C-alpha cells in the first residue's frame, strides 16, 4: 500500500508538484491588517508580494490548526491509503510540528478503531528544505520504498539538507529577530545582504555579502564545497518576488557542473511574511558533517540501550 504524504504550507512546493504526487497541505494562517487568510487558499503569492509594502501593519503568521491535519488524514483514508507520513517545518521555528502531533492524538481519540498508520516528522528545515524532503520521499515512494524505509530515510537525511537564504528586505529580518536594528541600518547603508542557514533547528546568519554578485558567488562556492552528489539528484532554488534571481542562480549551478534537475519555486505567503521582497534560497543535501555524525552516534547509543 502506497504512503500518503502530508505537509504544512511552508514546504512551498509548486502546485504542479503537489498535484503530481498527491500531497495534502495543512495551511498556515496569515493575518493581514486584522483579516485572516489561509496560506495558498485565500491569497495568492503574487498578490501578497505586490501589496506587501502597502500594508499599514506588517503581516503575522500562525501554525496550521490540528483540524486541517485531520482533514488531510480523513482524505487519505477516503482515497484508500493505510499509511500517512506528515513532514513539518522545523519545530524550532514554528508550531506546525506540535499541531500535527496534537492532530494525531485527537484523530485516534475520535477514531479509536482506525487502522491508519500515521507518522509525524520534524524536518528541522524551513521552506523548501522541508519541501525537498517531501519531494524526495514522493520519488522514493515511486521507487517502491516501504513506509518504514521512508521514515528511516527522513530521520537520517534531514540533518544534511542544506539551506541558504539571502534577502533584500532587511526590515523583515529585523522584525523576526534574526538581525539587530543596528546591523540592519549598517546593512542598508553598505548594501550588505545577510545570508542565513539552519543551525540547531533555527535560522541563523552565516555570512554577509555586498551586492548580488557576491551572493551568487557565495552560493555557488558553498554548493561546490558541500554538495553530496550521490544524494542530491535535484536542487530547489526559491525566490519571493524576483524570479530572475532564481533563474540566474540556476544557470550558475548548471555552469558549475551540476547534472541534476534544478527546480525553481516561489516561497509562499507564510514564509514570505518573514523573508520579505528579493529573497533567494537554495536547498540540497550536503556531505556528512560533524553535527550529523554526532547525531547518528547518539541514535546508535540510544538504540543499544533500549
Descriptive keywords:
2 domains, 12 helices, alpha/beta, four-stranded parallel sheet, globular, 306 residues, Hypothetical Protein Tm841, Chain: A,domain 3, six-stranded mixed sheet, Rossmann fold
Mind explaining what this structure looks like?
By secondary structure, this protein is of the alpha/beta class. It has 2 domains: about 5-160, Rossmann fold, CATH 3.40.50.10170; about 160-290, Hypothetical Protein Tm841, Chain: A,domain 3 (2-Layer Sandwich). Helices cover about 45% and strands about 25% of the residues. The chain is built from 12 helices and 13 strands. It has helices spanning about 15-20, 45-50, 65-80, 95-110, 130-140, 145-155, 170-175, 180-190, 210-225, 245-255, 270-275, 290-305, and strands at about 5-10, 25, 30, 35-40, 60, 85-90, 115-120, 160-165, 190-200, 200-210, 235-240, 260-265, 280-285. It has a 6-stranded mixed beta sheet with strand order 10-9-8-13-11-12, with helices on both faces. Helix 4 (about 95-110) links the parallel strand 6 (about 85-90) and strand 7. Helix 7 (about 170-175) packs antiparallel against helix 8. The longest helix is centred in the last third of the chain and has 16 residues, at about 210-225. The model is unreliable at about 180-185 (pLDDT under 50).
